[in-house]
Amino acid sequence: MTIGLEIVFLEVADVGTGHFAVGGAVIAALAGFIIPFIYARRNVSLWGHIELARIFDGPKFSGGSQKLRSKYEEGQEVSEDDLRLAAEQVRSELVVVMGMIETGLAKKKRIFTEHSDVIVKTIDAYRKYKAEFESRLYSGESEPVFSEFEIAIKRCYNTAQQWLKEGKVVQSVKI
Amino acid sequence: MVNLELGPLAPYVDDPSTQFVGMAIAMGLTAFAFFYPTYFSRRQNMGRGLSEAIRILEADDSWRARRILILKYEKKLETNEMELKKSAEKVRTDLIMIQSWIEEKGVPRRVLQDLYSGVFIKMIEAYVKYMEEFYPAAQIERPVRKLFKSSNRWIKLESRDVGTKQFEKIGVNLYDKLGL
User: Fold this and answer.
1) In 3D, which of B17, B8, B102 has the Cα closest to residue B53?
2) In principle, which of A24, A49, A91, B99 could form an S-S bond with B147, CB 3.0–4.6 Å?
3) Cβ separation of A92 and B55 shorter than 8 Å?
């Protein structure tokens, strides 16, 4: 690009072909700024969405969600240790998702369009887990299910519910 | 006379004595073109750092430790001294780790503060109470004080979340205690 600009300067100075110089400058700008910008940005958002797919379909969130829901939706027997691990996985992955939205690495629209129903069901099960086990762990003290410690999860839950209410969630494909 | 075709670049091109300025501008633009995309890889790295930080903070041991410490000083939980000590250690480690990541630009500070500023304030409040009870002569670590300062500032001036406003009062009380 340096060579390109040199040519632009020299040509304009010596030969006086102004229009050609402007064209050259535009091409140089395209090559030097816009193309790397497009590819770098695309690469980052691609990475973000690969991460997102790994979160929602991966063993941590998906496995944790299934365990919590099988216990609280289907009434299956799951050990307390498994539930504790599942709660940890679900909680951390959901906060990561909220962090990715705020960093701009993942698009809010894509996440809530595709996953709002799972998010709401999972957090409902997580709340039930906390109501059942956490109060017992703290010497029988009952505490609010959503305390101030879980601002991000609360935000995630409210947004997902809002999207469900507004009917923005993508419907599953029926074959 | 101003050369209308060249505009503001005219003196850098026409006058040989200032042509080096033109070259400097060209080189600057070239460097910018090369390094501008690194902004995105930096953001990607920060995203990785953020995920890592969140997974550590939300892991069962960290989560439980901060809840034990906070609930103890809110008088909602009876716990033995050993457990309290372990919790305080874990909370301190987490706070210092987070502050060091913020200083090293390993995490996006604004995002982390938006997600956790209230939690940090509660953690620091409980940790200060623990230190006052068991180590009254000790001074609170510098990274912890710095993290408190930035979290408090975030809540007072930058937070858009109504839920975090409740931490302002805690912040006012802690400000003097930490000697800030």
Assistant:
1) B102
2) B99
3) yes
Question: For residue A26, what are the CA distances in angstroms to A4, A152, B12, B51?
Answer: 10, 45, 19, 40
**Interatomic CA distance for residues B104 and B46, integer angstroms:** 10
Residue A144 has pLDDT above 70, yes or no: no
Q: Using a CB-CB distance cutoff of 8 angstroms, which residues of chain A are in contact with residue B66?
A: 149
- A80 with A153, same domain: the answer is yes
CA distances from A47 to A16, A40, B48 (A): 47, 11, 10
Q: Same domain for A11 and A93?
A: no
Note whether residue A51 is domain-resident. Answer: no
- Give the separation between CA B86 and CA A124, rounded to whole angstroms: 31
**Least trusted range by pLDDT, from B27-31, B98-102, B126-130, B158-162:** B158-162
Q: Do A34 and A67 belong to one domain?
A: no
* Nearest Cα to Cα of residue B115 among A35, A154, A23, A8: A154
Does residue A25 sit in the same domain as residue A94? no
User: Nearest CA to A118 among A84, A81, A86, A164?
Assistant: A164
Per-residue confidence (pLDDT) for residue B50, from 0 to 100:
93
**What are the residue boundaries of the structural domains of chain B, listed by start?**
48-177
Between chains, do B36 and A88 touch, taking CB under 8 Å as contact? no
How distant is the Cα of B68 from the closest Cα of chain A, in angstroms? Answer: 8
Per the structure, the complete domain to which residue A80 belongs is given by 58-175
